[in-house]
Each structure stands twice: as C-alpha cells, then as structure tokens.
Amino acid sequence: MSRVRVHNFSISLDGFGTGDGQSLEAPFGHAGQRLHAWMFATRFWDDAGTAGVDDAFAERHEPGIGAEIMGAGKFGPPGWQDDPEWRGWWGPNPPFHTPVYVLTHRPRPPLEMDGRTTFHFVDAEPVDALAVAREAADGQDIRIGGGATMLREFLAAGLVDHLHVVQVPIVLGRGVRLWDGLEALEEQYDVEAVSSPSGVTHLTFTR
Ligand SMILES: NC(=O)c1ccc[n+]([C@@H]2O[C@H](COP(=O)([O-])OP(=O)(O)OC[C@H]3O[C@@H](n4cnc5c(N)ncnc54)[C@H](OP(=O)(O)O)[C@@H]3O)[C@@H](O)[C@H]2O)c1
C-alpha cells in the first residue's frame, strides 16, 4: 500500500505553520520567509546551498511521490477563488510534476500546467480526497502539502503515515496552529528528533 507522507512542514516554537495576515504580497503573513529560511539555505533548494543535516531531510520531499494534496490556503492568497485567472504561485511549470488535488469548497475545472502538473480542485472529506489521489498516484506515495488547517484534518482522521515537522526557533505568537485538537497524537507514532547546527529541529513521526 502506498504511504501518505508529509515533508518539510515548518512550524514556529509556538506551533504556527503560517503567520497572521496572508496576502498576495505576504504568502506566509507576518512570518515572512522565517519558517523556511533553513530550507532555502540547502542544496535541495539552491545548488550553492549546504549539504548537511537540513539538506538530507529536505530532499526526502521528492522521491517516490505520485500525487500531492494541498489546501486552498497553500494554492493561493485569500480570495483566489474569485479570480478565474489564478493559476497558483509557481508559474507555468510548477515544481510538483504530478497530479495535485487542491481542497476547496469552491471547486473549478482542472488546470493542466507544464511539466506534468495538473491541479484538480476537490470539495471532499480527507479520506475521499485521499482515495482519489491514491488512484492517480498509481502505487507511489501521496504527499500532504499543507497548510496547517488541512494537515490538521488529515492527522485528526489518522491518515498520515509519515510526518516530518521542522521546528524553527522563532515565536510567531499568531497565525494558524498545527497541533490544536490533536491531543496525544504522538502515541500513534515512533517519534525521533534530530537537531541541526542551523538551529532547527527535525521531528519525524512514523507509524
Ligand atoms: N509551514 C509550512 O511548511 C507550510 C506548508 C504549506 C503551506 N504553508 C502556508 O500555510 C498557509 C495556508 O494554510 P492554511 O491553514 O491557512 O490553509 P490550508 O490548510 O492550505 O487550506 C485551508 C482551506 O482549504 C479548504 N479545505 C480544507 N479542507 C477541506 C475539505 N475537506 N473540503 C473542501 N475544502 C477544504 C478550505 O478552503 P475554501 O475556503 O476554498 O473552502 C480551507 O479554508 C499559507 O500561508 C501557506 O503558504 C506552510
């Protein structure tokens, strides 16, 4: 059976997966780039980047993935559903190269992009969206891409097999929290932690 995986999901010390006030100019709200600065510094992101602990974790994002499921809040800024021209943040050739299922209560027809990425817009419960993505992934794993709201739903429904969370040493104070309502989640997983010299902590939850 293919696995359901989360990679590089970055949270602040106080558990926020994005800041407050998301907009076209500020995709992560007041968090700016701080949640992912660790990743931008790696070779996974930039050929001139580092090749240590952070890179080793970051690059696990790609291999063996046959489809992604993401939330409407990752696909675009608040209100993108009112813009028929919005095609995501990533330009004509998005970095997914698989089918991507965007959860939204306001679905629209699929968007075929360059490089084998097709965005499908689905209004479905997590378990049903996963069944559709699993079929499309054709035996490969499914990545849950976030943001925090939809990831929390998948965790609450017990659908995630491998969760890689990166705890970044910043305190955001406001935004969208990952862990709310997930009391004792850790009991379902083997949990490991690796501290990186960059200051972040990589946490893996493996079923
Ligand atoms: N920290 C990280 O590593 C990371 C990773 C990815 C993204 N992000 C950031 O996280 C933010 C987005 O997160 P978010 O928590 O605000 O939003 P989100 O989880 O991306 O999306 C939530 C939205 O998805 C739709 N949705 C969720 N479940 C659904 C269901 N079962 N059926 C139909 N629609 C459903 C709803 O949108 P509708 O209003 O359309 O119904 C809901 O408001 C962005 O700032 C993004 O850049 C962070």
In terms of topology, how is this protein built?
Blueprint (H helix, E strand, L loop, with lengths): L3 E9 L3 E3 L18 H4 L12 H6 L6 E7 H4 L23 E5 L7 E2 L5 E5 L3 H12 L3 E4 L3 H9 L5 E7 L7 E2 L12 E6 L5 E6 L1
Parallel strand pairs: 1-7, 1-8, 3-4, 3-7, 4-6
Antiparallel strand pairs: 2-9, 5-6, 8-11, 10-11
Overview of the structural elements:
The chain is of the alpha/beta class and 207 residues long. It is built from five helices and eleven strands; from the N terminus they run E-E-H-H-E-H-E-E-E-H-E-H-E-E-E-E. The chain has helices spanning 37-40, 53-58, 72-75, 126-137, 148-156, and strands at residues 4-12, 16-18, 65-71, 99-103, 111-112, 118-122, 141-144, 162-168, 176-177, 190-195, 201-206. It has a nine-stranded mixed sheet with strand order 5-6-4-3-7-1-8-11-10. A two-stranded antiparallel sheet has the order 2-9. Strand 5 (111-112) and strand 6 form a beta hairpin. The longest helix is centred in the middle third of the chain and has 12 residues, at 126-137. The model has no long low-confidence stretch (mean pLDDT 98). The structure holds NADP nicotinamide-adenine-dinucleotide phosphate. NADP nicotinamide-adenine-dinucleotide phosphate (NAP) is lined by residues 9-10, 17-18, 22, 27-28, 35, 71-74, 81, 103-106, 123-126, 145-150, 153, 176.
Total beta-strand segments = 11
The end-to-end span amounts to: 13 Å
State the major sheet: 9 strands, mixed
Q: What's the tally of helices?
A: 5
Q: Which spans of ≥5 residues are poorly predicted at pLDDT below 50?
A: none
Whole-number average pLDDT?
Answer: 98
Helix content: 10-25%
- Main sheet strand line-up: 5-6-4-3-7-1-8-11-10
